[in-house]
Amino acid sequence: MNDYCPNCGAILEDFIEGSNMGQRCPSCGWSLVTTYTPPILEDDNEYTITLLAGNDATPAALKAISSLVGVNYVTAKRMVLQAPITLFVGHAVDIPVRRDALRRAGVQIAINPEFPHDKDGQLLDGAFMR
């Protein structure tokens, strides 16, 4: 794309907002917009979230695990004691909210294969989808 506004010659700003991307002029408002699909929506890999051994059965951890898996606290505590154990298997779009909830609760997890997306669904620097 061109780096200068065709209307006023100002330097254009690149942007990505939701399913749109393009360039806009901060001076006169001119813009060029096209559709954009975040890489996370194109990732059809199946990911596994595994509860790692060594977690403490804190109330926050048990709440996060029980909410994610759909079990009661007793079963969640049993899962902590039996770790490593699979908590979830799903597609890329399903991983961030689950990963973040578990991490906020201090739960140590592994995601396999390695999860290449940031919180906004973009590929991490140097990452690629398989």
Explain the overall architecture:
The chain is of the alpha+beta class and 130 residues long. 27% of the residues lie in helices and 25% in strands. It has helices at residues 39-42, 59-69, 73-82, 95-104, and strands at 13-17, 20-24, 31-35, 46-51, 85-91, 109-112. A three-stranded antiparallel beta sheet has the order 1-2-3, with no helix packed on it. β2 (20-24) and β3 form a beta hairpin. α2 crosses α3 (73-82). The longest helix has 11 residues, at 59-69. The mean pLDDT is 91.
The count of helical stretches stands at 4
Helix content: 25-40%
Outline the low-pLDDT stretches.
none
Class per helix and strand makeup: alpha+beta
Q: What is the makeup of the main sheet? A: 3 strands, antiparallel
**Content of β-strand:** 15-25%
- Note the gap between the termini: 28 Å
Mean pLDDT: 91
Shape: elongated
How would you spell out the order of helices and strands? EEEHEHHEHE
Strand order of the largest sheet: 1-2-3
How many runs of DSSP E, i.e. beta strands?
6
Computed CA radius of gyration, to the nearest angstrom:
21 Å
Could you state the oligomeric state of the chains shown?
Answer: single chain
